Amino acid sequence: MLPSTTRAPRAWPVRAFLSQAMLLRSLYTLLAAIALAATTTPASANDASPTRKSLRDTKTDAPRRDPGSELSTWCAGIAAAHPRGQIPDCLSLRLTEGQGRSVKGVPLWSTDVTPSSASAPPLRVLVLGGIHGDEEASVTLVIDWIARARRETLARPVHWRMAPLVNPDGYFRSPRTRVNANGVDLNRNFQTRQWDTEAHKYWIKTTRRDPRRFPGPSALSEPESRWVHQQIHSFQPQLIVAVHAPYGVLDFDGPPPPPTRLGNLMLDQVGIYPGSLGNYGGTVLGVPVVTIELKHSSRMPATDAQAMWTDLQRWIDNHLLTASGTTRFGATRTLSPTTN
Fold first, then answer.
1. CA distance 184 to 112
2. Cα–Cα distance, 68 to 65 (Å, whole number)
3. What are the beta bridge partners of residue 289?
4. How many domains are contained in the chain?
5. Is residue 308 within 8 Å of residue 292, measured between CB atoms?
6. Is residue 57 part of a domain?
7. Which residues contact 116 (CB under 8 A, 6 or more apart)?
8. Residue 267: burial class (beta carbons within 10 Å; 0-12, 13-18, 19+)
């Protein structure tokens, strides 16, 4: 036994050795991170482009479920996202190709459903889904409505033009993205008043350069938003319905009165944003724009789709059509931007 005055060996050298090993390992990790960063393309210093990367919305090499240019392939890609039987047979919707293409060259399929007979010019309604590629329920709803419009009696004097998926590049990426293949939020890319001075300022100061809401280098810089713009000015809609998710509200821009509810969605006018379709259609063109914000991005129960469809028909009958079935306003008016 050691004398009582003798102390046991101190343990600090062991702790010091372990601390040195941990320090070396941390230094190695730091050096590896620096080397990795050196191989990554730096973000642009220009205020007009995103400076933060998002794996969800800006990764350029994200896997993609390529829909090609054939309707059968496109429909197969849509059906793959839904349980069997949840959406109508896509090939029966009579979608047509037209001239619109996405950044990646995917056709922007659409269809017209016209009344069987009408003594007066019908009300023209443009319905758009999938403006944001990660809101797949909006695509489901428009497909459901196309099938309902074709099944139901076409005596109502309404000419529907419906495009289920405006942003196919975002929709068919894995994971899906809000923005298009150029990293642009299409719903911030329309030519609204003061877009040149307000769009990037809003993006920088209000969204703090959120890459999911980048408005693009210029208004209508994207082929998808240009296609919507062309549809508006060639079809001359008297009502625009844009379907989004997942905020669970009903928004409205343009001439009142708005619908107070569609199905389980209640009216809550949230305001306008630089470059948004509601701003462009409702404020610049003076066309009523109903913006549906579904409650879920991925789920669209058929019962909810039916309720929204029924309420929309009722609102159209009460506010946009007269008792004789003719349109209350805008039947012969040519859409053009109002004075800034």
1. 28
2. 9
3. 240, 253
4. 1
5. yes
6. no
7. 153, 154, 155
8. middle
Q: How far is the C-alpha of 114 from the C-alpha of 156, rounded, in Å?
A: 9
What are the two backbone dihedrals, phi and then psi, of residue 124, each rounded to the nearest 5 degrees?
-100, 125
CATH at residue 176: 3.40.630.10
Closest CA to 257 of 280, 292, 290, 231: 290
Collapsed DSSP state (helix, strand, coil) of residue 238? coil
Is residue 74 within 8 Å of residue 39, measured between CB atoms?
no
Examine residue 221 and state whether it is found in any structural domain, yes or no.
yes
Sequence-separated contacts (24+) of 233-237 with Cβ below 8 Å:
233/335, 235/124, 235/126, 235/161, 236/124, 236/333, 236/334, 236/335, 237/124, 237/125, 237/126, 237/161, 237/287, 237/335
Largest CA distance in the chain: 116
Calculate the CA 82 to chain-centre distance.
18
pLDDT in tens, 235-290: 999 999 999 999 999 999 999 899 999 999 999 998 899 999 999 999 999 999 99
For 310, other C-beta atoms within 10 Å of its C-beta total 13
Give the range of the structural domain holding residue 160, as residue numbers without chain letter.
95-319
Q: Give the type of residue at 3.
A: P
* Tens of pLDDT, residues 61-119: 445 567 878 999 999 889 887 765 556 788 899 999 999 999 999 999 999 999 877 66
Tokens of 61: 């090499």
DSSP structure class, residue 196: H
Q: What is the pLDDT of residues 1-57, one digit of tens each?
A: 444 444 444 443 444 433 454 454 555 445 444 443 443 333 333 445 554 334 344
261 belongs to a structural domain: yes
* pTM over the 0.70 mark: yes
Q: Is residue 38 part of a domain?
A: no
Closest CA to 258 of 319, 326, 325: 319
